[in-house]
Amino acid sequence: MQISKQGHTSNNGSYLISLHKTLNMEKNNKKTTFDKGVTIPGLLFILGICAFTVLFPKPTEIILENIKNFIFINLNWVYVWSVTIFVIFLVYLMFSKYGSIKLGDNDSRPEHSFFSWISMLFAAGMGIGLMYFAVAEPMSHYSDDAFAADQYINQAKNAQLYTFFHWGIHAWAVYGLVGLSLAYFTYRYRLPLSLRSCLYPLLKDKINSGWGNAIDVFALCSTFFGITTTLGFGVVQINSGLKALNIVSDTNFISQVSIVAVLVSLAIFSAISGVSRGIKILSNINTTAAIVLMLFVLIAGPTVYIIGSFTEGLGNYISSFFTISFNTHVYDEKSLPWFYNWTILYWAWWISWAPFVGLFIARISKGRTIKSFIAAVLLLPTIFNLIWMSVFGSSAIWTDFHIASGGLSSLVNNSEALMFSFLEYLPFPLISKALVIMIVIIFFMTSADSGILVMDSIATKNSQSSPTWQKIFWGVLLAALALMLLKAGGLKALQTMTLITALPFAAIMLFMAAALMKGLFIDDRYYQRNFSVSTVPWSGKLWKERLKQIVAFKDKRSVEEFIIIKAEQAFTELKDEFALRGIQASIRSLSDPFSVELKISHDLVHNFIYGVKLESKMVSNNLVEEQNLPEFQNSRTYYPKTYFGDTRAGYDVQYFTKNELISDVLKHYERFIDITAEQSNEMFTSK
After folding, report:
1. What is the pLDDT of residues 171-214, one digit of tens each?
2. pTM for the full model?
3. CA 597, 598, 600, 601: dihedral to nearest 10 degrees?
4. CA 126, 128, 132, 137: dihedral to nearest 10 degrees?
5. Which residues does residue 641 pair with via DSSP β-bridges, in sequence order?
6. What are the residue ranges of helices labelled H in 412-467?
7. Using one digit for the tens of pLDDT, what is the confidence trace for 20-75?
8. Among 6, 224, 106, 92, which residue's Cα sits nearest to residue 648?
9. Where are the domains of the chain?
10. Which of the four CATH numbers 1.10.10.60, 1.20.1740.10, 1.10.287.3510, 3.40.50.720 does domain 31-523 have?
């Protein structure tokens, strides 16, 4: 086959290339990356539970409801303590010395812009729930018998306080702990993006056995159940909104089938496009649309009341933070049913969703520091949620009391219609309702497509080359089971099952926190480890030569010569000396960046690498123009900088002699041997 310089091929060559590509595509389409130890038991459990809820909806619902009630009544303190511990633990990490550790190599950078990152984690973490409960939850607390004895003012304050509580820092602490653990062990320890990796410091190699499979099966089932029930509620709200706009005549099953078919198809297309295209674009659009809707309600509603209620509510939330965090309502039996059905249910709901949201947050968070990750995940979505709930919830309560005369509070049992009923009291209701439907639809799609990606990641142990049909499979399965459960009335039973699974996962999350702390401790000790006291510092023997180098201009060519002559000669002598002692070392020269490195390869532990590369930096104009300072010809100077295999920060070695470079390499090699020899560092130094 002849290929010309212009890049054209002969007809025969074109045919062969096309045939080769076709065969490769067919091979990829037939291939599966599913891990049998995770996928088969996970699907059997998912299909079994769904079959029971479809075939025997009432008995299944009763059994599961009794189990849930037993857990909520007798073990509610487990949820209270667990979620509060998660908050305290993350706040501690944010302000500790571990906050500067990156989720990845020390020189890694974030893959997504800050706005896109926040939009994606927000869309996956709250999405449909914010639209569904923005009016419904504050109105429910406001109307609940638990607060009926209070006056309007106290009812409104309590409604806002507990809405803030349920959608604030505690919720995001649950997501943040799982996301942080996954991102840390995946990008820092180079383990698979899998829940089993979060327990590596405790289980070590057992994460690759049945224990690891069990954790991933649990994550797969929990993710599937959580997404299915949430999408079911999203379909109901979309259907209700379309009815409010007279686009559909009724909220019947046929309409719901059409909605699911269209939206899941779009979600599958988005999932196939990947995170960087589909989910990112949709999340950015929806975050902008949600902000526009919120500003409209703020301006068109009781603006002064909203701003005042947010200000007072924020102060009330901060001052009551620890009181409500540990409050089990044990002294107020009248409010216990409300406590079980709201606070404990929310804690269970956030925990059950944590595998899904945590995996997705970790997937998009590489390169960020622990401090910036926690600050962003805990504070920014919380602040937005509090503003959002104030704008919609406080407006609805004010409208119900001053204009609607109880018309909104009478609809608390019809949650999916409350948002649309509230918008009737504001200007341009048709436009605002249409915007709500659009936002819910996009949230539906982002939840579905991120869910598809996460489930495929769990089922394949984070394979990066899954065939397209697997993503289609998860999307179709989500749609089919959600519709079956809607039709059979089994959606509530599946939701209850999801809440029950939160109890064991809360215990797993506590172990995750312990494992993360152990990993961070070893990480910090590894990078802060100093050279052995046996190493010899510079002497003043060559001070005149060094002074000459200090005051001389460093151009690119002179630094390249330093690397070629001094560094490479030093590495060559070391390589020969290592060979005499039975240690095989290699020398590699690179052009981008211009560098040379000495490498000692290992099978079980990370390779030892010491390199010197060309670096440049800008020089202050004052230094260039000043007469009584070293002469600089322009504003950029060059210097040789070390780098290491474990991505520790390097340093300038321009004043080193050849022998001093050799000595410096040996210092690092001595440190490498010393650290590798310690059993406590085994999990950090092992490949």
Report:
1. 999 999 999 999 999 998 888 888 888 998 888 888 888 888 88
2. 0.75
3. 30
4. -10
5. 613, 652
6. 415-423, 429-459
7. 444 344 444 447 888 888 899 999 998 988 888 888 888 888 888 899 889 989 99
8. 106
9. 31-523, 543-685
10. 1.20.1740.10
